[in-house]
Design brief:
Layout (H helix, E strand, L loop, with lengths): L3 H11 L4 E4 L4 E3 H15 L13 E5 L4 H12 L3 E5 L5 H11 L3 E5 L14 E5 L23 E8 L5 E7 H15 L6 E3 L7 H13 L2 E3 L6 H10 L4 E4 L1 H14 L10 E4 L6 H10 L4 E8 L3 E6 L1 H6 L6 E2 L4 E5 L12 E6 L6 E2 L3 H7 E2 L2 E2 L3 E5 L5 E6 L4 E3 L2 E3 L1 H8 L5 E11 L3 E10 L7 H11 L8 E4 L20 H4 L1
Parallel strand pairs: 1-10, 3-4, 3-5, 4-7, 5-6, 9-10, 9-11, 11-12, 12-13, 26-27
Antiparallel strand pairs: 1-2, 7-8, 8-18, 13-14, 14-15, 16-17, 17-21, 19-20, 21-22, 23-24, 25-26
Helix pairs in contact: 1-2, 1-6, 2-3, 7-8, 8-9
């Protein structure tokens, strides 16, 4: 199994002039990328005594999208350290909490972000990343005395915990390299690919797409920030074959495309690879309009589980409401409360067995034990399976509402509410109630200029849902609390004044 940084070195030897990274202003060859990675290795190892302490050797990274961020990430991996990738969108309080808990041996910070980290542990060495620094320093390579293995914990990403505070999850090199192999089989990746993932590298989807592309020897197109217009410029100027994005990004792209672009479609794109919210039938129609040769691959997964299922172009034609079939290399078990296998069409908790699952949460054995159960893992999602092996996500176990002794999955009600043209966002929760136990309550945000009565909302629910699932109270809100990735934060809903009234 070739390690991540070793693949960069191999490509630099075999095809030194091939473009590895193409960003807004320059093209970076594999030779240049390798030299930049090695220069970053030297910088990280400047103080060898940093690494004499025990514990997980963490390198914290607080950086915006840049070639330098990729070089530092690869350098960290090469020397067997673990890159903890912090989100520049976090508040100063969140950053302070996470950095204080992690105590990284080294913290790499973009010059313009240094004011976001006023409190840095005394034991942490700080490297200021500066765009004005040379991309690589020639003739200054030294052989690092540290190295990595397949089992090295190389990446710590973050997901919101039950309190909304970022929670670190750890991945081994082996888990990502295995996932590269299975993704190559599913998405038909190759060294000829040009890949664009216009999200922040602080999020695992974009970072994964980047490192996977470089591992295979393809070309990764790097965007500093997501702007629909600049992404469209990249798509028209370069032969992008694979596009990683979430549904909200696509909607912004489509709006910009129909407003200002004269080309009929973007024919080079072969695959749209997406996760997150389920795509609506209307959005899928727009995909065929904008990308005439692209197949849509919707995968369901989690930070802790990696890929779980995929709905490929064929599945999108025949089972568009499903989350697809198990991903290559993945075994799925849907279990009842007594841990026996659920029958077809019966709701159960989704368990996964694969070589791609995470290694655990940083500093939390208890929370890790809630996910890892021997060879199997679960994040508490509830699902069903049909006779053809297609899976359907019902909701999260922790979100389940018990009203009048009956189990209610809020995601089912939310999906229905979002079919109303007037409703922009909706979330359904169970509010404590002396009679019902929990009262089904829908919080909705209307589109600007739209109106809809409670009677119209309730009427739709009564037509489509069992009576006990219909909201007993509807609350209109102007805004919701959001996570840094732009999703409604269920953990912070109790902060809404409307719920307290």
């Amino acid at each position: 199994m070739m390690l991540l940084a070793d693949a960069i070195r191999m490509h630099a030897v075999d095809e030194p002039e091939k473009i590895a990274i193409c960003d807004d202003s320059r093209q970076i060859s594999y030779d240049e990328l390798h030299h930049g990675m090695m220069a970053a290795v030297n910088e990280l190892l400047a103080n060898e005594e940093d690494f004499e302490a025990g514990g997980l050797p963490l390198v914290g990274m607080l950086m915006n999208n840049s070639a330098a961020m990729i070089e530092y990430f690869l350098a960290t991996v090469k020397i067997g350290m673990c890159a903890a990738v912090f989100d520049p969108k976090w508040s100063i309080a969140n950053l302070t909490d996470v950095i204080t808990e992690c105590k990284p041996l080294v913290l790499i910070v973009d010059k313009e972000l240094i004011t976001k980290v006023p409190h840095i542990p005394a034991s942490t060495r700080v490297i200021i990343a500066n765009e004005d620094k040379p991309l690589f320093v020639a003739n200054k390579e030294v052989a690092p005395q540290r190295s990595s293995t397949e089992e090295s914990l190389f990446y710590m990403g973050f997901t919101s915990g039950t309190t909304g505070r970022p929670k670190g999850y750890l991945r081994s090199q082996r888990s990502w390299i295995k996932s590269f192999s299975y993704a190559r089989e599913t998405f038909m990746h190759s060294a000829r690919d040009h890949v664009l993932a216009p999200g922040s590298l602080a999020y695992s989807l974009s970072l994964y797409a980047c490192i996977q592309t470089l591992y295979f020897g393809g070309t990764f197109h790097l965007t500093r920030k997501f702007r629909a217009e600049s992404v469209l410029e990249t798509l028209t100027a370069h032969p992008v074959t694979n596009l990683y994005l979430v549904p909200t990004m696509f909607e912004a792209l489509y709006k910009a495309f129909t407003a200002s672009y004269s080309v009929a479609s973007l024919p080079s794109v072969r695959s749209l690879i997406t996760s997150g919210d389920k795509w609506s039938p209307e959005s899928k129609r727009k995909v065929t309009e904008m990308f005439e040769n692209a197949g849509l691959y919707e995968f369901y997964g989690a930070s802790e589980l990696s890929f779980v299922t995929v709905l490929d172009p064929e599945g999108n034609r025949y089972k568009p409401d499903s989350i697809g079939k198990p991903f290559a290399g993945v075994q799925v078990s849907i279990r009842k409360a007594d841990h026996t296998e659920a029958a077809e069409g019966t709701v159960g908790q989704l368990f996964v067995k694969s070589p791609m699952v995470f290694s655990g949460y940083y500093g939390s054995v208890q929370e890790t034990s809630q996910v890892l159960h021997g060879e199997w893992a679960t994040v508490g999602d509830l699902a069903t399976r049909d006779s053809e092996g297609y899976l359907y996500l019902v909701g999260r176990k922790k979100n389940m509402i018990i009203s009048g002794g009956l189990n209610i999955y809020p995601e089912e009600i939310e999906k229905l509410l979002l079919t109303l043209d007037a409703v922009e966002e909706a979330i359904v929760v169970g509010v404590p109630d002396a009679y019902w136990g929990q009262k089904v309550t829908a919080l909705i945000k209307l589109r600007t200029g739209s109106e809809i009565s409670d009677d119209e909302i309730v009427s739709l629910c009564r037509q489509e849902l069992a009576s006990y699932k219909c909201p007993k109270r509807i609350i209109r809100v102007d805004t919701f609390p959001y996570t840094t990735s732009g999703k409604i934060s269920r953990a912070k809903l109790d902060e809404l004044q409307e719920l307290k009234q």
